[in-house]
Amino acid sequence: MKKLLRYLADYKKECILGPLFKALEVVFELMVPLVVASMIDRGIGGGDRAHIIRMALLMALLAAVGLTSTLTAQFFAAKAAVGFAANLRHALMSHIQRLTFSDLDRIGSSELITHMTGDVNQVQTGVNLAIRLLTRSPIIVFGAMIMAFTVDFKSALVFAGVIPLLGGVVLTVMLVTIPMYRRVQGQLDTVTDSARDTLDGVRAIRAFRLESRETARFREKNSLLTAMQEKVGGIAALMNPATYVLINGAVILLIYIGAVRVNAGGLTQGSVIALYNYMSQILVELIKLANLIITLNKTAACADRIAAVLETGGEPDTASAPPEISPANAGSIRFSHVSFTYPDAAAPALSDISFSAERGEVIGVIGGTGSGKSTLVSLIPRFYEPTEGSIVIDGIPSPDYEKQALRARVGVVPQKAMLFHGTIRENLKWGNPAADDAALRQALETAQAADVVSAKEKGLDEPVTEGGRNFSGGQRQRLTIARALVKRPAFLILDDSASALDYATDLKLRQALRILPDAPTVFIVSQRTASIQHADRILVLEDGRLAGIGRHDELLESCPVYREIYDSQFPKEVR
Amino acid sequence: MAEPKQKGRMQTIRRVLRYAVRFRKHLVLSLLLAVVTVALTLLIPILVGRALDSIHSTGQVDFPAVIRVLIAAGISVLLTSAAQWGMSLLNNRMTFRIVRQIRDQAFAHLQTLPAAFFDGHPAGETVSRIISDADQFADGLLMGFTQLFTGVLTIIGTLCFMFYVHAGITLVVLLMTPLSLFAAAFIAKRTYSLFDLQARIRAEQTACIHETISGQRVIQAFSREQAVLSEFDGINERLREASQTATFYSSLTNPVTRFINALVYAAVGVTGALAAVSGRMTVGGLSCFLSYANQYTKPFNEISGVMTELQNALACADRVFALIDEPAEIPDAEDAAVLENAEGGIEFSHISFSYVPERPLIEDCSITVRPGQRVAIVGPTGCGKTTLINLIMRFYDVNSGAISADGIDIRQLTRESLRKNIGMVLQETWLAHTTVRENIRMGKPDATDEEVTAAAKSAHAHSFIRRLPQGYDTVISDRSGSLSQGQRQLLCIARLMLCLPPVLILDEATSSIDTRTELKIQSAFGKMMRGRTSFIVAHRLSTVQTADLILVMNNGSIIEQGTHESLVRQGGFYASLYRAQFEQ
């Protein structure tokens, strides 16, 4: 929580004034029992009707002043809490923009979404309540005690005795139950997962006749959850009766002491009533305080999760300025002895990869499932940094190549074709905001996507929904290729991005890429030999190693892995 | 419109009560304890008032009376807290156990539902019915009910006690009560539109967050970080403004009702004190009244909260009950036969089937598959390939005609024994949340570790399993992204390799596996399929060429049947599909 406080810095004034006005309200509230005491002692005792009415008006006045200060406090609290949450969301979002791909893999998208929505909202509620109540409750509790001391020192000792006891009870119950509640939540997640698993695998479960086993497992988890809930519920249910006994025990003691003191002439009847009222105020506040602490505890857990994300990754770029590219080196790539292991992975995804490519060349990358094809091309735009070896791009060692400058020169078409909400035009201009319609149409032609746009009523202005779900997989794929082309990249990476295209369209696409005016260096990752067999060089990967490198006919001769892949797709009889 | 809704609600309430009736002892005891708690809680101010009356002034204290009253107070305090605790324990137990019962019931019911249910209802929605709806239902209804009960009891009790102490002042309190209720309702109405606006902007922001985070890699690849952030900040700022007003206005309720309370308190003070001056009331009575005035309005605020919660709980109850009421699939026939070690002959005779009556799918389809035959099913997406498999497994029943296994109509067989004889690997892989080993062992729970390893080796899964952090003991979950789709398919194939039933179904079983690994697996499949009847659905024609029988489907019907050679020679739909693949 502490680490997040700097996002509250803009609201220092509100954070001080809010509790201050709240405290003011409390002071007015604490004066009420004294007014009542005076009403009784002087009004009733002395039979002074005018005084009674004056005191009643004073009470109404105190309430009105209290209301005003409380409203002021609520306003500051709302402003600070909401502003804090907005600052936090901005900080998180801009931090997420700086996360590396490794960080994103590690944290996970759904977790990030939870942090940005649920966690931030919880923190907002927590801060709001803290400003409003965190001062109120302690001030009432201790204020009531101090007021009691001003009424009568000896009787007030009861307050001094019972408050620590109450605090002790509340604290103990909370310290015991909070970790228990956390475990209950964990168990609830287990039960939820169990239900989810069953639904997702209903066919498999039936095929393997596991229905009764699944039901038994669910029952077991569910019963454990119930048992845990009952246990913690039983302990938490102690809080109210225990505090009730303590407070009312104190009231009884107070009245007895009061009786003795009144009898001896040290105290009036009205004062005893005032003391009794102060004690009652404490009980109400204590229960509020306990609830507040539970909320704040939840808030702290959320705040810690947010703080952990803000501290994770997002290392600054190793290079700080865009480098100079000499024309002789432009468009070239050199991998020497590159290895890469994903964070937390047991085995390297790539080991000892060396190859080079020159401007305008087409490089095919082929290999089995999980052989490291996508990983290899992900190293080029510095999505990941190699764990060993070096990569030189445009003649510049990749760690010295500023990410922004490098990525401006690389056009990536990812495996999963994703578009963003907006229009087709907006999506296409992602890599090059200055591109005109002619350039967009050119890119669409090359990507074989012109018909996708012309089939739409509004053409380039056709709206795109979140993720591009209003387009089919094949349409999305071609549009993402066009998006990369609009950038006019020096390096173009197609990561298995023609998989949804039929053979004829795939062929036309490759032919169109060959004649691009900028002559980019193209990487085509594919599982289909047909897509890469005309490449200038083919990298054959197996289990993260380079099993072969060369042209199609060379590899057919020299590389058994490549030959096997080829044979599997082109059975001899049809050749 | 309103009437059937009302009726439905009554039915729901009655049904909820039936659950509660199972705990009637708990319920009755809990209500009794509530009465005790409320009565004793209200008694304390009276006792304290009496004690105060006995403490008049210097030398005028009636100690025996004070002590008598205080002892009575002490006893009632102890009783109250005991009753309070007992009530909480009972309520907890009832609530949690009813939730458990409902969850178990709903889950067990899931296992009996026809496959059509799962195809028609998103999993997330069903999960939330079983988990959160059940929770809210029990919480809202039971906790809400007890809160409502104690709340109403407290109000009635307070009024009675107040009348008992002094009728005139009670009228003052009664007259001022509506003020606080009106104020709360007024504020709630005003804040509604503000909350609505906040909710709409928040939804917009959540959509933006979703898209940005799931597309983060693309955003970075295109260096769009700044653009995305500034769009986000725009929404964020609007949300901040809307939230600030909504939060502020909604936080007015408490202070305003507290203010009105304070006015009631002052009014009670002044009327009470004036009454005391004229001797119509004691000081203790006044003190007692002031305590009541302080407590009395609280249940009103709670009750209005409880009412909305109850509404919500009833809606949740409806959703859970709807799930429990879903019609189960037709149970096995009474005299259903058990299919033991099938030979594997499958016959479709004149079957028709459709998922929805308005859209006929398969019509009058007949196929004869002899034991040990290898059958391939090909055709474009949506042509009904997977439907055939749904029918063989009896996930769905045919509308007319019959499917028989070894000459017996499969509707005359127990589902369990039918499915035991059929092994399948689907395109949509499913792995249980347990270790790799347990997942492979699923079809044959008594398999040894060696058998598991052997099966994994023949599925070419051994090498990647070994590279997992804990090898065969690595816990995998269905949703974790730790395994690639291809690896997951390999595990499912290993699972099948281990149990090897007489009939095999491979529905796009290798769609996410690269062709080279697939080729290796094919040889293992070949071994596995020897002597077994098998159905293979594949979009890559290279994998179906060696089948004994190829069924070519289009628009739900089988348009061509035969071997690869005969179909190519025939020059029909299959031949054109086949040629398209190799055109360059």
Write the layout of secondary structure elements.
The complex is a heterodimer of chains A (575) and B (584).
Chain A: H1 12-46, H2 49-98, H3 101-107, H4 109-134, H5 136-151, H6 153-200, H7 202-207, H8 211-236, H9 239-264, H10 269-311, E1 333-340, E2 350-357, E3 362-367, H11 373-378, E4 388-393, E5 396-397, H12 403-409, E6 410-413, E7 422-423, H13 424-428, H14 437-446, H15 450-454, E8 463-464, H16 473-486, E9 491-495, H17 503-514, E10 521-526, H18 529-532, E11 537-542, E12 545-550, H19 552-558, H20 560-569
Parallel strand pairs in A: 3-10, 3-11, 6-9, 9-10
Antiparallel strand pairs in A: 1-2, 1-4, 4-5, 7-8, 11-12
Helix pairs in contact in A: 1-2, 1-4, 1-5, 1-10, 2-4, 4-10, 5-6, 5-10, 6-8, 6-9, 6-10, 9-10, 14-16, 19-20
Chain B: H1 2-21, H2 24-54, H3 63-110, H4 115-120, H5 123-165, H6 167-214, H7 216-221, H8 225-250, H9 253-277, H10 283-296, H11 298-325, E1 346-353, E2 362-369, E3 374-378, H12 385-392, E4 400-405, E5 408-409, H13 415-420, E6 422-425, E7 434-435, H14 436-441, H15 449-458, H16 462-467, E8 475-476, H17 485-499, E9 503-507, H18 515-529, E10 533-537, E11 549-554, E12 557-562, H19 564-570, H20 573-582
Parallel strand pairs in B: 3-10, 3-11, 6-9, 9-10
Antiparallel strand pairs in B: 1-2, 1-4, 4-5, 7-8, 11-12
Number of strands of chain B: 12
Distance between the termini of chain B: 64 Å
How many domains of chain B? The number is: 2
- Fraction of helical residues of chain B: 55-70%
Radius of gyration of chain B equals: 36 Å
Q: What is the mean predicted local confidence, pLDDT of chain A?
A: 86
Provide the low-confidence segments of chain B as ranges.
none
Number of helices of chain B: 20
Report a brief summary of the structure.
The complex is a heterodimer of chains A (575) and B (584). By secondary structure, chain A is of the alpha/beta class.
Fold and architecture overview:
The complex is a heterodimer of chains A (575) and B (584). Chain A is built from 20 helices and 12 strands. With 575 residues, chain A is an alpha/beta fold. Chain A folds into 3 domains: 1-151 and 297-314, ABC transporter transmembrane region fold (Up-down Bundle); 153-266; 360-382 and 410-570, Rossmann fold. In chain A, helix 1 packs antiparallel against helix 10, helix 5 (136-151) packs antiparallel against helix 6 (153-200) and helix 19 packs across helix 20. The radius of gyration of chain A is 36 Å and the shape is elongated. Chain A starts with 11 loop residues before the first helix and ends in a 6-residue tail after the last helix. Chain B is of the alpha/beta class. Chain B has 2 domains: 1-166 and 298-328, ABC transporter type 1, transmembrane domain (ABC transporter transmembrane region fold, Up-down Bundle), CATH 1.20.1560; 346-582, 3-Layer(aba) Sandwich (Rossmann fold), CATH 3.40.50. A 6-stranded mixed β-sheet of chain B has the order 6-9-10-3-11-12, sandwiched between helices. In chain B, strand 4 (400-405) and strand 5 form a beta hairpin. Chains A and B meet through helix 1, helix 2, helix 4, helix 6 and helix 7 of A and helix 2, helix 3, helix 5, helix 6 and helix 7 of B.
